[in-house]
Amino acid sequence: MSRRNTEQENWITYLLSLSRMVYLYPAEVKEIGGSKWGYINDKGNLVLPPQYESAGDFQENGLAIVQLNNRTGIIDNNGYFIVKPKYETISPFSEGRATAIDGEGFTVLDESGKEITSKAYSFIGDYKEGRAVAANTTENGKYVYGYLNRRGNEVIPLSYETASDFQDGKALVKLKEGSYALIDLTGKVLNSYSYPFVGDYREGMLAFRRSNDGKWGYMDESGTVLIEPQFTGTQPFIEEKAIVNVENNYYGLIDRQGKFIIKPQYASLINLGENRYALGKAQDPERPYLFQKYAIADSNGHIYTGFIYNDVSHYKDGIASAYNDEMTFLIDKRGQRLGHLPKVQGSGSLAFVKSLIKGDIDLRVLYFDKKGELIWKQNTIIPLNDDYSVIENKFKPNKDYLVYYPQLKGIENLESVNQKLKELSGVKPVPQHTQLESSYAGDFDVSFYKNNLVVIEINGYDYPFGAAHGMPVKKYAHIDLKTGRFYELKDLFMSGADYVKEISEIIGDKLKNDNQYSYVFPDAYKGIKTDQPFFISEGAVNLYFEPYEIAPYAAGFPTFTISFEEINSIINKNGDFWRSFH
Asked: Coil, strand or helix: which one is 491?
């Protein structure tokens, strides 16, 4: 048999294997210890059990990125690890390559899971046209950029101050201050440009500024100015049109001659693909960052709808997802709801994924078949044992206020316990049709359960509109299922024991001797408080601090785990708290 025939047979075998491949879908299950992810089939049956902390969609190559024990790996659709969970993160595959990050830096993986880069980099982007932007830091801390090929080799040396992805075999790079160039896939300079800023290369057009604080215009690849600088901001040309913004931050759409197709009178303008755009109108013109409503328009400026949507997704095959204050649904290219497809109460998105319709609504994943029948939704009951369970309830009085809160079933003092859980979770009077100053999302996990003690982690995120970031919220409720009592930190210790002093010293020693806490602000730690936030885990008590309290915001909630052995001499072994889980 000839080599050519053998290759053809191998290719046919590969195509047949793809046709037989059972596509699986990530699904979340709430259980004791927190939420876990597994995979269901197109009937809604769990095929791969919920064991992952996070689970991505299966990609066209039949691989999915998952997280296990706080590390990231890659599985096939049988659940076998192609890449063991050892990385901090792994990006989705692009052109058969994925970027992984570990303690050393960025590296590239092929579809067999092999690392193909010979060293770690400070940064590696996604592959585009056989090239990936890569960067390392110099001795003075600056980044230098170049490109890797699909073998993981530096095909274009790391020598640029900035570098963009390739488009149509060309990429824009910054050579030095005030000097840019357009290069080909080998690194050959095709054209160079002497301007303070050049960017947004696409479809043969580049945005540029003549001065550091000047306005933006567009030129072609040769450097010929086609649209004189007149915009305060620009985006790349897509299908012969570009989104720009002008004074007072209004957005419009121009053609290649700079003529406005959609006048610059909108608070936002989003390219939805397939010649459709979302026009954003601020509901409070004095504070446009608070809330916008969107209308659907085409690339000729024809507006199909009123400003009726809170958000709209990108179009695919003539269909997009949209939602208003009440519902999420699918719309056609004229912005009209498709009545034969699912509509779901809540805010989020719907999308066709293989043979199912996937919903991501109000922070929950659900699946429908193509007839619109619901085949999967996350469980709302977490059984503790035959007598006790935790029930998930939803509270959404306003489009910007969403709380999933726990309620216990089967315990003494049920009404008072559940009322306190509602209050801890953030269930409170919230006006329904009033625009809030911030958004809030709250959720919970059953983090620990043993004997008569259940520990419920209550978390949330409060984001003031227009702020750089929001503030996370974390609380723990330690509840005795027999009595309904909520335990405090002091209840763990003997009467008269100076637990504040002893634990403060233990944490102080950890800060001095353990490098993992090097992020803590110098001299910020002054010891713990009597009512220091805490939670019980197997064999230990954990004490934590709020963001900014002793460390940067990025550190989250600095947490210190102290084994019961370390504080054995002050624990009240006859106390109700200790006995509740021993």
From this structure: helix
Domain containing residue 490:
381-580
Sign for the CA dihedral angle at 168, 174, 175, 178 comes to positive
Name residue, tokens 């901001």. Answer: 233
Residue-wise DSSP of 206-237 = EEEESSTT--EEEEETT--EEEEEEESEE---
Q: How does pLDDT run across 3-41, given as a tens digit for each residue?
A: 555 555 554 444 444 444 679 999 999 999 999 999 999
First to last CA, the chain: 71
Residue 446 belongs to a domain:
yes
From residue 357, give the alpha-carbon distance in Å to each of 60, 340, 341, 368, 370: 17, 13, 9, 5, 6
CA 451 to chain centre: 36
Number of structural domains the chain divides into: 1
Whichever domain contains 436, its CATH number is 3.30.565.40
Please indicate, yes or no, if residue 148 is contained in any of the structural domains: no
What are the pLDDT digits (tens) for 342-392?
999 999 999 999 999 999 999 999 999 989 999 999 999 999 999 999 999
* Bridge partners, residue 234, by sequence: 244
